Each structure stands twice: as C-alpha cells, then as structure tokens.
Amino acid sequence: MQQFTEILIFIFLGIVLLWFGYKLFFKKRISTLGGVLRRGKNGSSSLAEGSPGDPQICPVCSAKLGAGELVSSAAFPSINGGKDRFMHIRGCLRCLRGERDRICPVCGKILGGNEILISRLFERRGRHPHVHVLGCSRCKGPPSGRG
C-alpha cells in the first residue's frame, strides 16, 4: 500500500511539473515575446503590440493599427491571370512620419524613407486577402551590377 501511495505522489508531482513547465515556457513566451522589441528614434525601447504577421499590425514597424488606420500599399494587376499579384507596402502613418523605425521583417535591416516591402497578395473567395512579405527593396529588389 505504501508503494502505491508513493507512485501516486510521483505521478501527481510529474503532472504538476509538466503543467508548470508548459505555462512557464510556452504560454508566457507567446504573450511576452509575441511583440518585437523595437527602438524608437529617441533611443527608448518599447514592446510593440504584435508581430509582423498578426492581423491589424503594420508589417513594417509592428505597430498595432487603430480603428480606421490603414497601411499605405499598392497592389498591381496579376500577370498570369491568377488569384495572386504583387504588392508594394510602404507602411502605416507612424512609420512613414518617422515615429517608429521601419524594419524589413525578412532581413531585419532598417529601411530608408523611399524603400518598400515587396509582397504577394493572395485573394481568397469568401475570406480576407492574405499578404505574404517577400522582403524589402534591398534584399528582394532587382539585382544590381547586371550588364
């Protein structure tokens, strides 16, 4: 009987430790590291409200967009007549004004004022369009030095 109680105690402790480890490493990590640590123009760092792939988040500066805020972008007609087309993303008002750093989510370089993100826009029937960022004008732009 004593051996049975010891086994039950070890099983209970194992379940509690697994639950604690899951809460410590997975749930905590998603909630605190979901945002990207960015440095503003004045040198102060702030935790952005989301990561670049989240809905209603600027893909350039990771700022959470408020009601009615839009991202400046230009979608081009499809070349092959399909459901996907190229798109250039400039950013939201905060990063275009210079309040936040404009960072490429692919290569991590800080973008200049005239640089854009190159992406593909997938239009899906009955659902919201999906945007896949390929890179910035430096890392996915036209190759230089051809001739």
Explain what you see:
The protein has 147 residues and is an alpha+beta fold. The chain has a domain at 55-136. Helix content is 25%, strand content 21%. The chain is built from two helices and six strands. The chain has helices at residues 2-33, 93-97; strands spanning 37-39, 45-47, 72-75, 84-91, 117-122, 130-136. The strands form two sheets. A four-stranded antiparallel beta sheet has the order 3-4-5-6. Strands 1-2 form a two-stranded antiparallel ribbon. A hairpin with an 8-residue loop joins strand 3 (72-75) and strand 4 (84-91). It is elongated and about 75 Å long. The termini are far apart.
Helix fraction, binned, reads: 25-40%
Tell me the overall shape: elongated
How much β-strand is present in the residues? 15-25%
- Average per-residue pLDDT, rounded, comes to 76
CA radius of gyration? 22 Å
Give the number of DSSP strands: 6
Task: Summarize the structure in short.
This protein is of the alpha+beta class and 147 residues long. 25% of the residues lie in helices and 21% in strands.
What are the key terms here?
four-stranded antiparallel sheet; elongated; 21% strand; two-stranded antiparallel ribbon; 147 residues; 25% helix; alpha+beta
Give the topology, please.
Layout: H1 2-33, E1 37-39, E2 45-47, E3 72-75, E4 84-91, H2 93-97, E5 117-122, E6 130-136
Antiparallel strand pairs: 1-2, 3-4, 4-5, 5-6
